[in-house]
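PROTEIN DESIGN WORKSHEET
SECTION A - STRUCTURE
LENGTH: 153
TOKENS:
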């Protein structure tokens, strides 16, 4: 695959990841009480943290889902989104092991039951975030690469 094709795949991946997180955040922002119930059903957080998580998490998804489209913020957004995917993968795995018959809560009433398919989709999303992240260079690396290139000439 050429460098141009890889860049195009990364751009498409960033848009897909963005769309998924923006879409998911909309349902949670619209009905945070329902989202709090989904979180509660996982039986992982103390009662005091359920509502806080139901309020904060959708905003993280919304802001990071938008920021992944902005080159200046892409790297940071990828780190946040990969963290969210990792935590959710652990939560789903625990729910599967416990045999919980619950909905994932990702897309409001359109959410699916927690299971291997949910875990696979989340891991694919994590992989897409990692793929986008790998295309990001820290700001210092860009200026170093530019100065090394000019020194070679």
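SECTION B - SEQUENCE
RESIDUE ASSIGNMENT:
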């Amino acid at each position: 695959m050429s460098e141009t094709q890889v860049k195009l795949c990364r751009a498409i991946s960033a848009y897909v990841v963005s769309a998924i997180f923006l879409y998911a955040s909309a349902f949670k922002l619209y009905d945070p009480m329902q989202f709090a119930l989904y979180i509660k059903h996982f039986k992982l957080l103390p009662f005091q943290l359920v509502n806080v998580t139901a309020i904060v998490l959708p905003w993280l998804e919304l802001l990071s889902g938008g920021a992944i489209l902005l080159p200046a913020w892409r790297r940071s957004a990828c780190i946040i989104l990969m963290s969210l995917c990792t935590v959710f993968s652990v939560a789903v795995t625990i729910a599967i092991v416990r045999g919980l018959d619950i909905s994932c809560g990702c897309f409001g009433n359109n959410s699916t039951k927690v299971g291997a398919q949910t875990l696979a989709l989340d891991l694919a999303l994590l992989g897409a975030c990692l793929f986008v992240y790998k295309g990001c260079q820290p700001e210092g690396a860009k200026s170093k690469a530019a100065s090394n290139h000019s020194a070679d000439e």
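SECTION C - NOTES
The chain has a mean pLDDT of 91.
Helices lie at 3-30, 32-41, 47-67, 74-98, 116-134, 139-152.
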